[in-house]
Design goal:
Elements: E1 6-11, E2 21-25, E3 28-33, E4 40-48, E5 53-62, H1 88-106, E6 113-114, E7 129-135, E8 153-158, E9 161-167, H2 177-191, E10 206-213, E11 219-225, H3 230-243, E12 247-254, E13 268-272, E14 276-280, E15 283-287, H4 297-311, E16 318-322, H5 328-334, E17 339-344, H6 347-359, E18 365-369, H7 372-375, H8 378-384, E19 389-392, H9 401-410, E20 414-419, H10 422-432, E21 436-444, E22 454-461
Helix pairs in contact: 1-10, 4-5
Bound molecules: S-adenosylmethionine (SAM).
C-alpha cells in the first residue's frame, strides 16, 4: 500500500532542474521523474518535502508528442541518460531555458545576449571515460525464487542506493568496445570464481573497473582490487592484455580504503603506458589514471574555442585561469596570450599541467596548487600582476564568496566564466553585477540525454 496519495489525471508541465518535469496541483508543486511535458497521467507521490512533492506517473492517459522511444534497455533503472524519452532538439531547448531562467530569476539580470545552445555532434558514444563498480549485491528487477545464488553485477550504482549496483549489458555512452571489455572481464571473473566486493561487509576481490579512450581509439583499463591475490590478479590482467589489443594502457590499484578515489593510491602499470595521450585543438594532453579530463572530448574543443573567443585575446594579455585542472583551458588560450597563470586545488593536476606545458613546447605559463581563496590573495595578484582577462571554471558549487570578492577588488577588465551549474553561476553573477555587465552567455551541451548543461558567460567591467 503506497504511503502517499495518488493524484489522478495530472497534466505535466515543463522540464526543470535535475531532469524532472513540474506539475502544479491544489497549489502544490510536484516534481515528476521520467515524465515529458504534455503527458497526462496518474501520479503516485513517492516523497513529501517541505515545499514540494515528488512523484512518478503510474498510469498514462495521454502520451506527450515530445516522447520518443528510449534506446537503452537500462533506461529508468540506471542513473544515467534520464532524458532518452525526449527528442534531442527538445532536450536542447529545455537546457537553454534552464540557463536563461537561472540568470533571470536567481541573478535578476536582463538585457544580455543569449546565444543559441550548441548541441553535441555525437549524442551517443560521446564520453571518453566510464567508472564501473563490481558488487555482490546486484539490483534485480525480476526475482527468481528457484535460485539460491545471489546475483553479482558490474555496472552503475542505482540512484539513491549506494549499496546496490545494476549489471550493465550494454552502455551507449562510450564506443562499443567498452561493452566488449566489461562483458569479457565479468565473464572471466564469473567463470574463474573471483569474488565481488561487498560494500557493507567490506570483503571480496573485484572492486572497480575504469575505462578511458582517446579519439585515436586507444584504451586505458584500470582494475581496482579490494583483496589482493597475486595469482588471480595476474590471470585477469593477462586475459585483458591478450584479448583486447586496443588497450594500450593496462593499470591496476589495490584499494583497501573505504572510498573509491584513486588520488591517494599508487597506480601500477601492468602493460603498455601508464597514460593515454589526447589531442585537443592541436595540443597534446597526457592523461594519467587519476587526471581530470573533460569527458566529452569533441565538445570540450567547442567549449574551449568559445572560451577563447569570449576572452578576446590579442597576444598582449595577462590571463588568469582559475580552477585550471590539468591546465587545458590555460594551454588552449596560451598562443594568444602574453602570460597565463593557472590555479588549481589538486597538486597532481598541477604536475600534469606543467608536464602538458612542456609537451606542447610552451614556457609562458605558470601553475600554482592550493585552495583558490587561500592562493588568490592581494599579495599573489601584486606579485603576478593584475589580469587583463580572468577565466574561471569552478566545480558545481561555483566560486567561494571570498574568491568573488577578490575578483571584484582586482577589477580584471574581462571575465569569462565557464560553469557546469547555471544556478551557482547565476548566484555568482548577482555578486559580480556590482561592478560588471553581463554581455552574453553561450550554453553548450556536453552531456546529451542528461539534464546537465554547461554555460560560458562574458562579463565586462562597467
Ligand atoms: C570543472 S573543473 C575545471 C577543470 C578545467 N578547467 C578543465 O576544463 O579541464 C573544476 C576544477 O576546480 C578544482 N577545484 C575545486 N575546488 C577548488 C578550490 N577550492 N580551489 C581550487 N581549485 C578547486 C577541481 O579540482 C577541478 O579541477
Amino acid at each position: 500500500m503506497p504511503k502517499y496519495r495518488l493524484l489522478e489525471n495530472v497534466e505535466i508541465g515543463p522540464a526543470v532542474a535535475e531532469g524532472n518535469c513540474i506539475a502544479r496541483i491544489d497549489n502544490q508543486v510536484v516534481f515528476v521523474k521520467f515524465a515529458a511535458p504534455g503527458d497526462i497521467g496518474d501520479v503516485q507521490i513517492v516523497a513529501k518535502k517541505r515545499n514540494y512533492l515528488e512523484g512518478r506517473i503510474v498510469k498514462f492517459h495521454h502520451h506527450s508528442e515530445k516522447r520518443i522511444t528510449p534506446f537503452c534497455s537500462h533506461f529508468q533503472t540506471c542513473g544515467g541518460c534520464k532524458w532518452q524519452h525526449l527528442g534531442y532538439e527538445d532536450q536542447l531547448a529545455f537546457k537553454q531555458q534552464q540557463v536563461v531562467d537561472a540568470f533571470e530569476r536567481i541573478a535578476g539580470l536582463s538585457g544580455f545576449e543569449v546565444l543559441p545552445i550548441l548541441g553535441s555532434a555525437q549524442t551517443t558514444a560521446y564520453r571518453n571515460k566510464l567508472d564501473l563498480t563490481f558488487s555482490n549485491r546486484a539490483w534485480v528487477t525480476h526475482f527468481d525464487p528457484e535460485t539460491t545464488i545471489r546475483p553479482t553485477a558490474l555496472g552503475f550504482h542505482i540512484p539513491g542506493r549506494f549499496d546496490k549496483v545494476i549489471d550493465i549489458d550494454k552502455c551507449h555512452l562510450m564506443p562499443d568496445y567498452v561493452n566488449e571489455i566489461q562483458r569479457g572481464v565479468k565473464a572471466f571473473c564469473d567463470t574463474h570464481g573471483y569474488t565481488y566486493y561487498d560494500l557493507l561487509d567490506q570483503q571480496g576481490m573485484m572492486r572497480n573497473l575504469m575505462l578511458r579512450c582517446n579519439k585515436k581509439g586507444e584504451w586505458m583499463v584500470l582494475v581496482s582490487f579490494f583483496e589482493d591475490d597475486a595469482e588471480k590478479r595476474h590471470a585477469l590482467l593477462d586475459y585483458i592484455r591478450d584479448h583486447f589489443e586496443r588497450v594500450t594502457s593496462l593499470v591496476y590499484v589495490i584499494n583497501t580504503k573505504k572510498n573509491d578515489t584513486l588520488q591517494d593510491l599508487t597506480v601500477q602499470c601492468y602493460h603498455g603506458n601508464e597514460y593515454l595521450m589526447e589531442e585537443l585543438g592541436g595540443l597534446q594532453f597526457k592523461i594519467r589514471p587519476q587526471s581530470f579530463f573533460q569527458t566529452n572530448s569533441m565538445q570540450a574543443e567547442t567549449l574551449y574555442a568559445i572560451t577563447k573567443a569570449f576572452a578576446g585575446l590579442s597576444g598582449k594579455e595577462l590571463v588568469y585561469d582559475l580552477y585550471t585542472g590539468t591546465g587545458s583551458i590555460a594551454l588552449y588560450v596560451a598562443d594568444k596570450a602574453r602570460q597565463v597563470v593557472g590555479i588549481e586545488y589538486v597538486p597532481e593536476a598541477i604536475l600534469d599541467a606543467k608536464e602538458n606545458m612542456k609537451i606542447n613546447g610552451m614556457e609562458h605559463l605558470s601553475f600554482y596548487a592550493g585552495d583558490m581563496k587561500e592562493i588568490l590573495t592581494t599579495a599573489f595578484i601584486n606579485e603576478h600582476g593584475r589580469p587583463d582577462v580572468l577565466i574561471t571554471d569552478p566545480p558545481r558549487d561555483g566560486m567561494h564568496p571570498d574568491v568573488v570578492k577578490r575578483i571584484l577588488e582586482t577589477e580584471p577588465p574581462r571575465i569569462v566564466y565557464v560553469s557546469c551549474n547555471p544556478a551557482t553561476q547565476a548566484r555568482d553573477a548577482k555578486l559580480l553585477d556590482e561592478k560588471y555587465r553581463l554581455v552574453k552567455i553561450q550554453p553548450v551541451d556536453m552531456f546529451p540525454h542528461t539534464h546537465h548543461v554547461e554555460n560560458v558567460g562574458l562579463w565586462e567591467l562597467r
